[in-house]
């Protein structure tokens, strides 16, 4: 069974921002592997932090000279400045119990089977801002963990694209493509209109 790097949504109002990027991870300091850059196959650099779970994988299995598919959470303050948090590494052969059949060693084909591709992001959240002049939208993503009192349990993502002002406060599901440091809207679906209950 091929494990999907971006899991299926479990409930319709599930917030999330997750994506997959192929690239090499270059740590700022070889003693501290948790911070560095992800360099994609076009040579673009993205500021990156490796989260705890992925850090042990990185130490045990990852050759820093090779490219991998990284499962990442995006953060940004604007469309010029993307920051990634690595949650996992998608390697169906080395890290999953997937039979290593070398004829299928084409990861991009495997991704296509899962309806995914390099630089794809799935973003689900509340549309809180539309800038029609700049053609940008802002999606608010709330953390699912009610238990921990995290100071940044809500965060906003700035995305290049156009949505109608009428959709403000609606819960939307977006298909996003990363272009350099920008996240660009490809497709969207309105899951629930006006979460604020004004209508």
From TrEMBL:
Organism classification: Bacteria, Bacillati, Cyanobacteriota, Cyanophyceae, Synechococcales
Highest rank taxon of the organism: Bacteria
Species: Prochlorococcus marinus str. MIT 9302
Protein name: Uncharacterized protein
């Amino acid at each position: 069974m091929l494990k999907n790097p971006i899991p299926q949504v479990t409930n319709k109002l599930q917030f999330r921002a997750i994506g997959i990027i192929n690239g090499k991870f270059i740590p700022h300091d070889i003693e501290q592997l948790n911070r560095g850059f992800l360099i994609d196959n076009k040579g673009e650099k993205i500021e990156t932090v490796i989260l705890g779970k992925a850090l042990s994988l990185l130490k045990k299995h990852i050759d820093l000279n090779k490219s991998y598919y990284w499962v990442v959470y995006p953060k940004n303050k604007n469309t010029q400045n993307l920051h990634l948090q690595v949650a996992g590494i998608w390697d169906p052969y080395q890290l999953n119990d997937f039979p290593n059949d070398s004829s299928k060693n084409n990861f991009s084909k495997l991704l296509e089977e899962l309806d995914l591709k390099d630089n794809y992001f799935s973003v689900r959240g509340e549309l809180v801002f539309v800038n029609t002049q700049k053609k940008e939208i802002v999606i608010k993503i709330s953390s699912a963990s009610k238990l921990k009192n995290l100071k940044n349990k809500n965060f906003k993502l700035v995305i290049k694209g156009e949505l109608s002002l009428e959709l403000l406060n609606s819960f939307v599901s977006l298909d996003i493509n990363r272009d350099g440091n920008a996240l660009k809207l490809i497709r969207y679906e309105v899951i629930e209109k006006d979460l604020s209950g004004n209508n």
